[in-house]
Queue: 4 jobs
Job 1
Amino acid sequence: MRKQLINLIAFVAIPALTFAQTADEIIDKNIAAVGGADKIAAVKTLQYDQNISIMGQELTGKTTIVVAQSYRNDIAVMGQQIVQVTDGDKGWTINPMTGAATAQALPDEQVKILKGNASVIGTDLATAKDKKYPVELVGKEKVNDKDVYNLKITRPEGVANYYVDATTFQLASMKTTVSIQGQSGEVKVKYGNYKTIEGLTIPSSLELENPGMPGPLAMTLTNIVFNPKVDPGIFAMPK
């Protein structure tokens, strides 16, 4: 009986161990496809411009990031400037479209979400490995006729599912449920038009669905620059 019990435990444990190793292998292949851990880690700051299309409106924006620390996004809308910033554990926004013409502090849950953007786009799995976030391989699926691996990652701001192209090992899409001021909804992102810049292969187009937006958003990134000099004062909340 004792021997049978040991065999049963081994039978259950071995597939689970293999499953975990497979998830690690997928993440390692994704990191290699992006350009390697050293190349990713070498990026300390970055900037890029945005061309945004939403509900027939064409907008422009600019993002400045200090990796793992600060994030600023400026978007021009109908002659107005919308600003969202996180710096460490604090954040603020200016949004004249909602009557907030002066800087307002962001709620903690929104700061957590925006902090997740303080990285090189397309390197979320490298961050997960570096930060040792819990990762589970859900399985292999078909998304838009492509074979993808579904990885469930528990991040500080919540649980997200990342879909990794089974051929290129680049990110194909992700989804997560967010909760802001008592309202929850699912955010979905599709990644595309991968380009190699200074040895890093990253997406230059995104399609985003967010319950807080009036419709789907398409974004094209241009003028991507790694390690520009960044004035830390741009992240300080105006008084």
Job 2
Amino acid sequence: MARFQYVTQIEIDPGAVRLLPQECKAAGIARPLVVTDAGVRAAGVLDIALAALAGVPHAVFDQTPGNPNEAAVRAATAVYLENGCDGLIAVGGGSSIDLAKGVAITATHEGPLASFATITGGAERITAKASPLIAVPTTAGTGSEVARGAILIVDDGRKLGFHNWNLLPRVALLDPDLTMALPPALTAATGMDAIAHCLETFMSGKVNPPADGIALDGLRRGWGHIERAFSDGRTAREARWNMMSASMQGALAFQKGLGCVHSLSHSLGGVNPRLHHGTLNAVFLPAVIRFNAGAESMRKDDRLNRMAHAMGLPHGPDYADGVAVARAVFDMTARLGLPTGLAAMGVGEALFDEIIDHAMVDHCHATNPRLASRDDYRRMLQESM
């Protein structure tokens, strides 16, 4: 059975952040907790959002870590409860939005955070009591503003997914002006995250024709505009708009499922939380694309050629092995100044067994178009060094 659901209200336009007061009212939020991070505050972006909230009582939590964890969820939940908040506004990248989703659970439900994780069977324990959330993304990468899930590191070090439609933001305010000051390196890393979502969800063997169409258009936008956003991001408003759309589209599509790229990046991100998720996705993509080329669903639906076409690459029967698409991703990663291998990120083979252990049980493992074994994961890690 194929099931798909698209329900998020999305506003995408310069100045969309000014809609915050009316969207709070529409969501029934009278006293929000604004969840953000120190970098967003230091860049002055938080001030823009708080100015839009003038007249709306609120509290602020600005200590979201780069990879949100259970300790930060507890700290933010304490601020939420101490201030009598009744809803959340996430202003930031995927980390802040995912942290806010964690608060939406723990502020309204009893039990340890891990008990609500997808792989523990806890998804159905997340009820409509979850705090309402408005998402204001300040990067173009994760797409968490339109996704029903969050990725959080729990106290035992596992990086787990939490998925339920009650976590879906009530509205996503996509204001490309908020991304204009994003540094080039972060523009590159988050942009490759968006491209990874579009590529990997399109490769997934699950049936979801709307997701396929959304992913391919998002890939076209992301691939076509990331270099301009990277090199001229402070003035290239059109490129920023398209990257924000690509990010949103990748996340709308990944309800279809992701795969080995994310199994590996979730796992390694849990082992070493200092590593950027988008950069890890970029590094793992080439090896996974080559591995996936052997999947029956990839050949049957001509998926590699359809991906290559969206990327403006040569395509046809001679390119069905995935080598051309994989090489193009590798070359793009290099042009954007990101690491192209794990060794450059300080990752050695001594970590492989631990990475594989967690990848095998990650919620993205089962939706890869070709089921990976431990040996397959080891080869992909070796090829990504």
Job 3
Amino acid sequence: MKKRILNFVSLSLITSALFFGSCSDDTVEPVVNPEEPIKVDDRWITLAGAKMGDNPGDGNGGTVVYSISLTNAKNPDYEVSIYDNGFGVHSSRTARLQSSEDGKFLFNIQYTGVDGGQLDKYNVAGGNAFGYLKGANASQYVGTSPRWVKLFDGDKTGVAVNVTAPTANNVVNGTVDNTIPFKYYRGKATVLSLDLENTSIKTYETYELPLTAQEELAGHHIFRLDSPVLNKAGNKLIVGTWMRQTNPATGTNRFINGRLGTKSLVVDYPSLKNPTLITSTVDDGDTSGYRSFNAFVANDGNIYQATQRGTKGSHILKIGQNNQYDNSYVFSLDSALGVTGSYVDAWRYAGDGIAYVMYNHKGAEEQGFVARVDLNSKTATRVELPYEAGLDFGQYQGFVVNGDEVLIAVTPVGKDGNIYILNSKTGTVTKGAKLKNKAGNHYIGVY
């Protein structure tokens, strides 16, 4: 299959000329600037859709994007069909996209494939016109399937993380040496910072992340890192973890005597040195999220972080400005929503203590919902949306926070849907542009 190649040009030039090379067999030829020029006080809203691979909703067929004006995004009479007209971003599977705060740029680190670990930067010019700049490839440091996010530092920095497959200390050349007492399973963790302005690598650090001797003897270890967040002081990164327990006797992966308390990695910033682990006693879930941000610095200067896969349903945890968990802050989404087994698929902080959470729960694991959350009062209210069968936010990534408004895309797999505008101040919900869909596909974000 041929690859689409574009020459990157500056924003001032891209609106008048884009140069396209060959395109892949399954993407349409670009139509340069089909959208009308945006107003001075407007911005581009980029929609992202995941195409099916082998099964409906798996998102493994690649990702397409298409940009419209904010005015059109809010117009329920406006219709978008990105699967007919969209631009295919470089990605073997679902792209993990980030956007600049003004919507002028998209960033992606390719996930798996021959270019896995490649940082790509796209200039947003409206419609399916995207200028492309190929940046650094970080695969030699964080592998071809890194997890990454953009820091909220004025679009300057991205952070990619990875942990190699954990191995036992008594495995030598792939074989267990029974003369060596078992002590732990560990992988090599790497934290790497990226210069998003120049699409280059800043620095990286690699280290093991030991737990307590007792925890490691029981086979507990860090399986994955994800969703870094920069603290208010700008001197520490807090990185979410996904924990696992491997039975030292059998090699099977399952929790034998219960999960550990929720953990996160803390490293110095910008050096990325001095790794330490912090533990919450409030919950036992993971803090890695999946495809989107999982932790945010709120207006009060504290970090709020969601949990997944725990035994108590998802929680929102609080990390104080001392970079330690505040175990006096207990916010259970099960309790707040009146459900059991809640699970945060994706969420976004909107400001002034308000956030929007996409979630499912026990008995409705394949059905996505949206809740308006108040971090100060520790309350949550389900947002009234058309919750059709097939609406699943498990791969959802992108939210746009524009003043008091939060824009999201709501489409069941294979069905049409809409953009919805959620007012974080009033709680009101307004229907926006119609999103045309195709069988097996779904929209995964607004940027």
Job 4
Amino acid sequence: MATEHTTPTSETVGPTNPRGRVIVASLIGTSIEFFDFYAYATAAVLVFPSLFFTGADETSRLLASLAVFGVAFVARPVGSILFGHFGDRIGRKGTLVGSLLLMGIATFLIGCLPTAHTPGWEFWAPALLVVMRFCQGLGLGGEWSGAALLATENAPAGRRAVYGTFPQLGAPIGFILANGVFVVLSLALSPAQFQQWGWRVPFLISIVLVAIGLYVRFKLIESPAFQKVLDAGEVAQVPLVRAFRTAWRPMLLGTFIMLATYVLFYMMTTFTMTYGTTPATVDAARAAAEAAGRPFDPAGFLPGLGYSRTDFLTMLIIGVVFFGVFTLVAGPLAERLGRRRLLIGVTAAIAVFGLVFSTLFDAGTVGVMAGLVVGLSLMGLTFGPMGAVLPELFATSVRYTGSAISYNVASILGAAVAPTIFVALWAAADGSVFWVGAYLTATALITLVALLLSRDTGDVDYTSRTR
């Protein structure tokens, strides 16, 4: 068994967790959380509209499903307050265990729910789905910030941005795992089998991953930076109040610094999957519905790209590999160039990408694949540094609460409503996705303003109890 050790830097005090344990604990937790989250996101597009909602047409059912998808983002700020309170009051370790347990149980139970087509469950099935989705959001609301703090508060001097990429890697890894399971199921099962019971498998098997994550996290010790707060007796009685009193400006800036990152990711995953797998013609849509054994109403039909579910998920997984690679690349770049300078350049590139999004996705398979690779590479470059940037905005005593609130309020502004807005813009333009890309550009410009108003955080004293 590895033993705790002290890293001889100006930023650590007392015993720390071994580097390998930090990497595994921060990475595996977010990978599991994002696996759970993306399993729902994929199902919300592919099967939940017809299983849990009984709207009059395809578009209304899809919008209803995406609305429930957004419930988790509303829950995430609540989770950030709840878990941030305990993370800044009792410590990072116990809070991380609680967040993982909550989300894991909720995800498993989604796989057990009856559908709206089960007699007597027309109302209760979607209602319980909303409850489980809310619990998923609560768990993830506390997960990310704790994992980021676990990584960065155990980092050697000059390596926080590198260590901060470990929890960020959970997003591409969780996405690949979740959607890889869907691809395998799609190949192994007929459309009718997948519709009847195959969709449950990712949710049910997630409980095994949760057990592994809990085992790793129980072996952690408290982070040295927070232990310093405990030893000094400077724990905030109500971290939320102290955060709003002493760190309202960093919370505001952090929220808008994250805005474009959220919009980009959910455009490149949830929306592109919707657009890519929607049949290109009414006849094709009718045939797909008949093959899956579900009703079809041509009212409200929107033309998409017409890829099969398996083909587009495979293309998306390839794109997410680039997301993972550039997440790793972003850490050393942020140390060398500075967090702020790197993010300003990447955000400007995101704004340009929004303007060419429709051109790429209307250019055939080569254009679609190029669009996925470019968009998800930019996602890695903007998401990677956030594991260090947001926590660095705050003093240790309110770091869990402040970074969690910024991260998760941004999820409401940038992600909760984004998939619904994307579909609405797509529908308003009669199948064109130009305005979808323009929406990304607008949010990138807002993020640029926030970055210009902020300062680089790479040289802050990370063990400062108050700031």
